[in-house]
Write a structure and sequence with these properties.
8 helices; alpha/beta; Spore Coat Polysaccharide Biosynthesis Protein SpsA, Chain A; 7 strands; 7-stranded mixed sheet
Length: about 240
């Protein structure tokens, strides 16, 4: 544990069937599933290596698929970098898995459910990290946690979305107005507005490792060559 207030990282992970549907023109369902697994393993491995992160939690509607993501026998999980190809996942156990509430779909609902489940740890910070950030590094995570605000938004490459979000965790007995998650279209501005309404300061971080989430062929085209090579090794035939 760190000497500072604890940081709990929450990673939302979808199922292995519906993810990355906007890449369907280039990747078949099996390839998209392998892509989702590889990206999630990379993000979880980065978080596991961050000294500032005390606990990692996955929130999902499909715990069976998350078990596949966390399977220590998986291959092709190393992130982009020199001579880094088929590396076993860095995080193979100890990750808490929280099932999304039944009959209440949606990312914001899932995150609120996860926050309620973990906030008994007391005052600290909650770090939401999307599971599809192929360029994410430990330095990126540290930069978000060091951001000069009660709330820190790591924006996407368009400057409108939110790929990482650090907020006060608080405790289950807090009477203060809780910060509401506002993921969706225009979430950067929505989170800035939510911070102001909650009486919290807000900072925005823009880094290459936090900005590029992989959803579309345009995102794929913007990947550095090394990252594209790594993902082609994992996924198989797909985008050039």
């Amino acid at each position: 544990m760190t000497a500072q207030a604890p940081v709990v990282a929450v990673v939302p992970v979808r199922d292995g069937v519906s993810g990355k549907s906007r890449l369907a023109a280039a990747l078949d369902p099996g390839a998209r599933r392998r892509l989702v697994v590889a990206l999630a393993r990379h993000v979880l491995g980065v978080l596991d290596g961050c000294a500032a992160v005390d606990r990692v939690v996955v929130v999902t509607a499909d715990p069976g698929f998350v078990a596949e993501v966390l399977d220590p026998s998986g291959h092709g999980t190393g992130g982009p970098g020199p001579d880094k190809r088929s590396v076993p996942p860095a995080r193979v156990g100890g990750t808490d898995v929280i099932r999304e509430p039944a009959g209440r779909p949606g990312l914001n609902v899932a995150l609120e459910h996860a926050r309620t489940a973990v906030r008994a740890v007391g005052p600290g910070r909650l770090l939401v990290v999307h599971a599809d950030l192929p360029l994410l590094t430990g330095d990126d995570v540290a930069a978000v946690l060091a951001g000069p605000g009660d709330v820190v938004v790591a924006t996407d490459r368009h400057g409108t979305g939110t790929n990482l979000l650090a907020v006060p965790l608080g405790s289950s007995g807090d009477a203060a107005r809780p910060f509401g998650f506002r993921f969706g279209a225009g979430s950067r501005a929505a989170h800035e507005q939510e911070a102001a309404a909650s009486g919290l300061t807000c900072a925005v971080v823009d880094r290459p490792g936090t900005a590029l989430d992989l959803d579309t062929l345009a995102d794929w085209d913007d990947l550095p060559t090394g990252a594209r090579r790594w993902l082609r090794d994992v996924v198989g035939p797909g985008p050039a």
